[in-house]
Amino acid sequence: MKKVIKFGEDVEGYNIPVLNEREIRAAAGILFVMMFLSILTVIFKQDFTMLKYAVTIFLTDIVVRVFVNPRFSPSLIIGRLVVSNQTPEYVGAQQKKFAWYIGVTLALIMFVLLVVVNSYSPITGIICLICLIFLFFESAFGICLGCKFYSLVYKEKAQYCPGEVCDVKSKQDIQKTTWPQILIVVAFIVFIILLVVLFQDTLKEPPFDLFGLETATKASGNQ
Fold it and tell me: What is the per-residue pLDDT across 142-159, written as a single tens digit (0 to 9) for each?
């Protein structure tokens, strides 16, 4: 029974239970796409059906992670299959568990308000945004925002963080950002703003059918 109800893996060379950060990032990407598409459906079609399914799936998945075993989480299993050829990157399980407790809380609130009560409000909107931010940072950057609060709450240093961010060390030259690079980013943001301001009317024009396929299809359908 202990092998079933357990959080983290025992890996030789690590003195605490650990998880594979690579499969966690893959799973976060899967959940991000699911939630993002569901929210887009609400925004553009005013249809909450897909979002209700997504919230229920998200809650079920993360409850399995926290209260049963991450090994049995469907999204993590899929993530493991996707990155099975990559070398594992081990991270401390304890801070991940704390972060996922936050996820359980947010998902439970969403489930009650959106699915059980069948309501929407600024609360559900803000929670959706927070979940998207958490999932995006995890999948895109490998940054566990929930883990950042672990040290603040428990007053102890987290062990085995992704990319060894818990360890104080000097950056290598390839990691350093110069002022010219910062200016390039600022200039690129200005470029985007000017692009929107100066070419908004032009870019809003719908494109025409280059080969006339839509017109031909309509014509054949009317015959």
Answer: 888 888 887 777 766 666
CA distance 193 to 170: 35
Predicted structure pTM score = 0.80
Please state the domain extents for the chain.
Answer: 18-170
Quote the CA–CA distance of 24 and 18 in Å, as a whole number: 12
Q: What confidence tens digit (pLDDT) does each residue in 47-78 have?
A: 999 999 999 999 999 999 999 999 999 999 99
Confirm if 113 and 123 have CB atoms less than 8 A apart: yes
Q: Are the C-beta atoms of residues 51 and 114 closer than 8 Å to each other?
A: yes
